[in-house]
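pls design
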């Protein structure tokens, strides 16, 4: 497969997801919750956890929500489109990463980017529904890739970024840490993966621990 053809899954993913984003330009479901959190942060309090039952995530996605609402107010552009653009970028990066993996591994792995690029669930979640799982998934995939290359600290920090975006990647911590040799090295991996997230949560916990809990 030549170089240009290898990147066709990225173009296909872009076209499908952009169409989904533009076709679902409405403030409904989770996108409505995102806008409510953004309005809370911009107009009421910097602490999103004080917006009862609206923000059940680690404290990174809130800045995307707030920035998207600020831009929407300043430019008149659609909040529903703006808030999905980082997700679109993550989706394209995942497909690009799968392209590279497929070219390195060969065989059936070459179909992986096409499967993800065209998968209706991936398009539904990122383009129509507006969930941002792909941002966390991208960082989790990078953590796995760094681990395969023996870059343990980089893997742990990528995992920390994944956990800071959405908490489910913490489930991969025992699996990745088990691939590091030695108790001390595994402890270092765990600390690098967890301490940054704890540090991000600390100001919010100090402000109102009950709200964070």
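designed seq:
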């Amino acid at each position: 497969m030549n170089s240009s053809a290898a990147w066709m899954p990225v173009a296909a993913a872009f076209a499908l997801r952009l169409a989904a984003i533009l076709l679902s330009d409405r403030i409904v479901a989770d996108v409505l919750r995102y806008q409510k959190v953004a309005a809370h942060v911009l107009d009421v309090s910097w602490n999103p956890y004080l917006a009862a039952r609206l923000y059940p995530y680690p404290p990174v996605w809130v800045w995307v929500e707030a920035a998207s609402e600020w831009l929407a107010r300043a430019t008149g552009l659609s909040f529903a489109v703006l808030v999905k653009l980082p997700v679109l970028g993550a989706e394209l990066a995942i497909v690009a990463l799968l392209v590279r993996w497929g070219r390195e591994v060969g065989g059936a792995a070459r179909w992986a980017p096409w499967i993800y690029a065209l998968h209706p669930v991936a398009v539904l979640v990122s383009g129509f529904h507006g969930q941002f799982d792909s941002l966390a998934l991208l960082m989790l995939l990078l953590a796995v890739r760094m681990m395969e290359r023996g870059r343990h600290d980089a893997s742990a920090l990528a995992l920390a970024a994944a956990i800071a975006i959405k908490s489910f990647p913490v489930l991969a911590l025992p699996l990745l840490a088990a691939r590091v040799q030695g108790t001390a090295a595994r402890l270092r991996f765990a600390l690098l993966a967890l301490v940054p997230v704890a540090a991000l949560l600390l100001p919010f916990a100090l402000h109102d621990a009950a709200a964070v809990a």
